[in-house]
Write a structure and sequence with these properties.
The complex is a heterodimer of chains A (about 400) and B (about 850). The two termini of chain A are about 40 Å apart. In chain A, helix 4 runs antiparallel to helix 6 and helix 8 crosses helix 11. The longest helix of chain A has about 40 residues. In chain A, strand 1 and strand 2 form a beta hairpin. Chain A contains eleven helices and twelve strands. By secondary structure, chain A is an alpha+beta fold. A five-stranded mixed beta sheet of chain A has the order 3-2-1-5-8, with no helix packed on it. Chain A has a three-stranded mixed beta sheet with strand order 4-10-9. Chain B is mainly α. Chain B has a two-stranded antiparallel ribbon with strand order 1-2. In chain B, helix 6 crosses helix 22 and helix 8 runs parallel beside helix 11. The longest helix of chain B has about 35 residues. Chain B is globular and about 75 Å long. Classes of the chains: A alpha+beta (about 400), B mainly alpha (about 850). Chains A and B meet through helix 1, helix 4, helix 6 and strand 7 of A and helix 4, helix 8, helix 10, helix 11 and helix 12 of B.
């Protein structure tokens, strides 16, 4: 029942285009590999059914939340480590499984040949292999010496081969880990992200403003991300831009970094179960060209503007009357943790591409549904349903649609 | 054999043993039966029911995930479903099933008539059943837990989960662990003390080794889960702050403790399957297992290593990189013993003879392949950078289902097809079995092989739905189809099992040409397992044709062991390493008290959800149950009638050399011929470390000692993270003399041992009176400790809910006080039994056990006091 609402919206979803417009794939650092990012990252790239079965692990470079679609050198290093480990362990395990099947084939043949190939006497332990109906006994390798030899081989192969492989793999893995963990350069920007049930508060301490569920970053710069949580443990993960994920733990601050080579939109999602609506707690990182990013930050320094039209003024009144203001601030200023509100700041609402942490596109229609009955779209969200007269709703929407910094 | 009177003797022996070992009939009998095969089978059947229930939940979850944004399950229902699925599979299916398999098979594999503590076995089953039923009742009435089987706080704290769901989980899983722990102690002591003569450790079947090591791991791993769920329960119910950051607690403490249990738990589930495969491959390949010793050593090594890898579940917490690399290396090390198992299996097959593959063999081969695949993804996950990417995605779900379905469920099915004829006397149907295997195998891989890819493409785990357009739709749809195939396979198996149990092809005692001892008896075995306790002279006694059940070359004392003795249930006691005969254990008869005690204990646990005051009520009821349980019945009456014989026996127990142990070699003196069996030369009363009871208490102490040490570690973990310590909220304590009360109280408790120890010593030397006075004196001193402690805590200016400091302080005090109360009750009971001459100079093992526990309680109290002193320094 509950799923009905969102399903109705499926067609609307795919219409969302990246808010920053098509990016010019320009070389900005020596290490960049030009990639076509002009395609909308949200466009579904369905795997081809036929190819999928054959190239199960090789064909997985679609989707904007894929770890094998890395968008910076460090993430690419981890991606390479993945392919390397897949290839090496794949070959090893194929060898072992092959040996198993070859063993079964031989033992079957021997079993079928019966006792005449290697009689019970061959092993010198006629009593072994007591089997019903005169089945063959005394298999090859059941004499004491043969078994000692066998034990040695097993110890040698089972101990030495994995040890050699593991030492090699461990060295590579540790080196990759140590190379991707620290930021690749002096961070140009720090972003503080706080996990809430079930959205992301994003603070830019310098120059000092707050937004939600969308992190805008300049292309070609190292971004330091400090994460924590306001309620329960969440986890911050933008696979294409970061070396993995890091948990957001109440009372602690963890750090991770991001780096985007090219402008575009990169998806992230909460990966630590945080309650009923863990599933639809996603975020977006929008990498912008430096000048666009400058412009974007600049407007945030301006004082908050009062609504201009009469409808919007009425909308502001509704905003207070129906209680929106008890959870949502509209000033774009970061608040101390103790004074944090249950919902995101709405100052730049119209700049955001989605509502409900990427649950639905931010359109007037979507906004209306979200206000009237958010639980049909994102069950368990803390935003309550709001009963509104038609004209109040329209006024509120007018007001909300006027919100941009 | 040539003796013409032999068949007649065998018939008489069979009749007498059957009468002695028959489980009681009727409805009442159902609740009183203690036979290990009855209990083991109940464990397995019940666990399988839970497997089906958890499987239904799994299919429901898969249906919900078939397509994006489906509405099959609401998010609340989905979250409850995955929590119940995980908890049920882990705690209500795998663990009880393998424990049941162990309880059923171990006595058959080691040539015993019964396990060490039959009533404890029955108790463990009732606890398991009650916990399972209550958990599902809670779920079905809308109080299901909904925060995953790993229950991370603060999400599971009262603030975010006000409902009773998490309470039920915390309380019932802890309750359930009681069952796991008693079964573990039972298994450990049985394997150590009740092996047939000659079954030295180097002849122990691999399956017994595996279950034995599993049980040891349970002993040392489960306390961490008990401790941490106790802390969470206290946080939720009485308002302590173990996991509350705002008051000095730390939610990461939960994760450390949980995974300190959780990772060994993975191997606890895996090892029995490894052991089972190592039994049935040699049977089907018609040759001994290759590399027996390396395989056993690898089991041990994995058991030990598994305690040093828990942090690999916590790479994303932001811990120091050096530490992560250490745990990465440790985790990868587990590959080596696993590789030795796999190679041993391959060599065994390679150089063996195979009949056309039967279902059991198919599941074994499937297991090996899937275990390899689960192993290689395990290596990947041990790598820190890879783990940072795929952690908490569907890739993890795929990985651990390869290890837990491929590595645990497949070998369980292989074992079921293998031992079903032994248990029921009938074969499972092969044609249905093949269908079952192929449906399960194809379904499994369709579900989980694809799930690796879903995870690589970024789909997190524990999500009830996902948005379209992320490339996950098609993979999820296929996974769901696979899950349906697995479901169909399981249903087919159920049908096969039910049908074959009643109408399957009858099996002989040794239908597969097996190698180990269980095949030397009938299928299904008689209630006494073996007509005569066998003498073991080889690693694979049955295959070697060396099971001596007949009169030839059996020393006379062995012959005595096998006869029934006046309606008494008996089994052999042998030495720990070489299995030299030490004596005969008198085993208890059926009893309703284990059932009662389990019910009473459930009042204590479940009651805590409503009010903490029900806990003492339940504990008192439990004590009543334990008194009834241990009240001397027939066994004691026997002891009195045979007073002189017992005293004699105790002499022998102290110097086992007086029994003539011919060694497990052949060619010793032939058995005495006909006529009355000679008087017992092996003692009934075993004392000190010869006694299984003392070993049992020692492992109880191992469990509780682990709990204490983990608590102390937790204390210092929280202390390190809090500055200042003691925190400002609690430093209003009166200065100066605050060390006097603790010092005096600890001194009293320490002194309390003296009169008890002296009394027991005197009893051993033949005088009863010193104990009759010494025991009350010791109890009085212990009571003095309680009073002083009560006074001390009454003067505390802070309570447990002031700060984590207070929580630790009060919990340690409460824990010590609870144990001293247990001493008071147990000591009082022992005094009554001494007064009634149940304990006398020929029977005092119970008092030795009490003394041992007393020592532990004192040591634990001192340890806590030291922690408070040292930790409390600013």
């Amino acid at each position: 029942m509950i799923g009905k609402g969102p399903r109705a919206r499926r067609t609307g979803w795919t219409r969302i285009m990246p808010g920053t417009g098509p990016a010019a794939p320009g070389p900005e650092g020596g290490t960049h590999r030009p990639r076509d990012r002009s395609a909308a990252p949200h466009r579904p790239r369905a795997p081809h059914p036929a190819g999928l079965v054959v190239l199960l692990f090789l064909g997985g470079c679609a989707g904007s939340q894929s770890m094998v679609d890395a968008a910076n050198p460090a993430a690419r290093q981890v991606e390479s480590l993945w392919w390397l480990s897949l290839l090496s362990t794949g070959i090893l395990s194929l060898l072992v499984i092959g040996a198993l099947f070859e063993g079964v084939r031989r033992a079957r043949r021997r079993g079928a040949e019966g006792a005449d190939a290697e009689g019970p006497g061959a092993a010198g332990h006629g009593a072994r292999g007591r089997a019903p109906e005169g089945a063959p006994t005394g298999a090859k390798g059941s004499s004491a010496e043969a078994r000692t030899r066998e034990d040695r081989w097993i110890l040698l192969l089972g101990g030495l081969l994995p040890a050699l492989f593991l030492v090699g793999f461990l060295i590579v893995s540790v080196r990759v880990g140590q190379s991707v963990a620290p930021p690749p350069g002096e961070p140009a920007l720090t972003v503080e992200v706080t996990g809430h049930k079930f959205w992301w508060e994003v603070v830019y301490p310098e120059p000092g403003f707050v937004t939600a569920n969308e992190i805008r970053i300049p292309v070609g710069e190292v971004i330091r991300v400090r994460v924590t949580a306001a309620d329960v443990i969440h986890s911050f993960w933008v696979p294409q831009l970061s070396p993995g994920k890091v948990d957001m733990i109440p009372g602690r601050t963890n750090e991770i970094w991001m780096y985007a080579e090219e402008a575009g939109t990169y998806r992230g999602q909460c990966t630590e179960f945080c309650g009923v609506q863990h599933a639809l707690m996603s975020l977006e990182v929008v990498a912008m060209e430096a000048e666009n990013f400058e412009a974007w930050t600049e407007v945030r320094g301006r004082p908050v503007q009062a609504p201009r039209t009469a409808e919007a003024v009425r909308g502001l009144e509704v905003f207070f009357e129906v209680g929106c203001a008890s959870c949502h601030a509209v000033d774009g200023r970061p608040r101390p943790a103790a004074a944090s509100l249950a919902g995101p700041d709405l100052l730049d609402l119209m700049e955001r591409r989605t509502l409900g942490a990427l649950t639905l596109p931010n359109t007037r229609d979507g906004l209306a549904q979200w206000i009237v009955n958010p639980h049909s779209l994102k069950p368990g969200v803390r935003m309550p349903a709001t009963r509104l007269e038609e004209e109040d709703l329209e006024a509120l929407l007018d007001y909300l649609e006027s919100l941009r910094p | 054999m040539s003796d013409p009177r032999e068949p007649e003797r065998e018939r008489r022996l069979h009749q007498e043993l059957s009468r002695i070992w028959a489980p009681p009939p009727g409805i009442l009998g159902f609740f009183t039966a203690v036979n290990h095969r009855v209990v083991g089978l109940r464990f397995m059947v019940t666990a399988f029911v839970f497997f089906l229930l958890a499987g239904i939940l799994a299919v429901a979850m898969r249906l919900q995930l078939t397509l994006p944004l489906l509405g099959v399950l609401s998010p609340e229902a989905y979250n409850q479903a995955f929590t119940m699925h995980g908890s049920t599979m882990m705690f209500l299916f795998v663990l009880p099933f393998v424990e049941g398999l162990g309880i059923y098979l171990i006595p058959l594999l080691i040539g015993a008539r019964e396990m060490a503590f039959p009533r404890l076995n029955a108790f463990g089953y009732w606890v398991f059943l009650l916990a399972g039923i209550f958990l599902f009742l809670a779920y079905l009435t809308g109080h299901g837990p909904d925060s995953g089987w790993y229950n991370y706080p603060p999400l599971t704290g009262r603030a975010f989960r006000p409902g009773a769901g998490i309470d039920f989980w915390v309380v019932l899983i802890t309750f359930l662990e009681v069952s796991a722990l008693v079964a573990a102690v039972e298994i450990v002591v049985t394997v150590l003390k009740h092996r047939a003569p000659g079954l030295s450790l180097d002849r122990l079947p691999v399956f017994v080794w595996a279950i034995f090591i599993t049980a040891l791991m349970i002993v040392f791993a489960m306390p961490a889960l008990i401790l941490t769920s106790l802390m969470l329960g206290l946080d939720r119910i009485v308002g302590t702050h173990f996991f509350n950051v705002a008051a000095g607690g730390d939610p990461l403490l939960w994760q450390h403790l949980f995974w300190f249990f959780g990772h060994p738990d993975v191997y606890i589930m895996l090892l029995p399957g490894v052991g089972a495969i190592s039994m049935l491959l040699p049977t089907f390949a018609r040759r001994p297992l290759a590399a027996y010793l390396p395989v056993v050593v690898s089991l041990l090594v994995v058991g030990i290593l598994s305690f040093g890898v828990w942090v690999h579940h916590m790479y994303t917490l932001g811990l120091a990189m050096v530490g992560l690399n250490f745990f990465s290396a440790a985790s990868m090390l587990i590959t080596i013993p696993s590789a030795i198992w796999i190679l041993a299996w391959i060599f065994t097959i390679w150089r063996g003879h195979l009949e056309p593959l039967n279902t059991s063999m198919l599941f074994s081969l499937g297991f090996i392949v899937l275990f390899i695949l689960g192993g290689i993804t395990g290596i990947m996950l041990a790598s820190v950078p890879l783990n940072w990417q795929v952690h908490d995605t569907q890739f993890i779900v795929a990985h651990f289902h390869y290890t837990l379905v491929g590595g645990v469920v497949f070998p369980i099915f292989a074992a079921v097809y293998y031992w079903f004829p032994k248990v029921t006397g009938r074969f499972l149907d092969e044609r249905l079995g093949r269908w079952h295997f192929w449906l399960f195998l194809v379904g499994f891989n369709a579900t989980f092989l694809l799930m690796h890819q879903t995870g690589i493409q970024g789909m997190p785990r524990r999500v009830y739905t996902y948005l379209p357009g992320l490339g996950w739709d098609f993979l999820n749809a296929l996974s769901t189809a696979g899950a349906l195939l697995m479901g169909a396979g399981s249903v087919l198996f159920l049908w096969n099992a039910v049908r074959s149990w009643r109408r399957g092809v009858p099996a002989t005692g040794d239908p597969w040409g097996g190698a180990s001892l269980e095949w030397a008896t009938t299928s299904p075995p008689e209630n006494y397992n073996f007509l005569r306790i066998p003498l073991i002279t080889a690693l694979e006694p049955v295959r070697a044709g060396k099971v001596q059940e007949r009169g030839l070359a059996r020393p006379p004392w062995l012959e005595e062991l096998t006869e029934g003795h006046g309606g008494r249930r008996e089994t052999t006691v042998t030495t720990v390493l070489a299995a030299e005969p030490q004596g005969r254990a008198d085993l208890p008869m059926p009893s309703p008290w284990p059932f009662w005690t389990a019910m009473a204990l459930s009042v204590a646990f479940l009651g805590a959800i409503w009010t903490p005051w029900l806990v003492p009520v339940g504990l008192v009821l439990t004590f009543v149950g334990l008194v009834g349980w241990h009240w001397p019945g027939q066994e004691a009456a026997r002891g009195r009638t045979e007073g002189s014989g017992v005293a004699e026996g105790s002499d022998v127990a102290e110097s086992p050399g007086t029994t003539t142990w011919p060694g497990p070699k052949e060619g010793s003196a032939p058995a005495k011929g006909a006529g009355r069996p000679p008087p017992p030369s092996l003692p009934h009363q075993l004392t000190g470390w010869a006694s299984p009871i003392v070993w049992g208490v020692a492992f109880l102490i191992a469990i509780e000692g682990t709990l204490l040490l983990l608590f102390v570690a937790s204390y210092f973990y929280l202390r390190m993270g809090t500055d200042p310590w003691p925190p400002a909220q609690v430093t209003a304590e009166a200065p100066g003399m605050e060390w006097v009360l603790p010092l005096v109280s600890q001194l009293l408790l320490l002194l309390s041992i003296v009169p008890v120890a002296a009394g027991v010593r005197a009893l051993v030397r033949g005088r009863r009176r010193p104990l009759l006075f010494g025991l009350p004196a010791g109890l009085l001193l212990a009571a003095g400790y309680l009073v002083l402690k009560g006074w001390e805590y009454a003067g505390r200016p802070y309570r447990w809910d002031a700060h984590a400091y207070g929580s630790l302080d009060w919990t340690m005090g409460g824990y010590a006080a609870l144990h001293v109360m247990i001493l008071l009750l147990a000591g009082g009971f022992a005094w009554v039994l001494t007064l009634r001459r149940h304990f006398h100079p020929g029977r005092y093992t119970g008092l030795q056990a009490l003394l041992l526990y007393w020592l532990f309680v004192v040591a634990g109290s001192l340890l806590f006091q030291a922690t408070q002193f040292i930790g409390g320094q600013g």
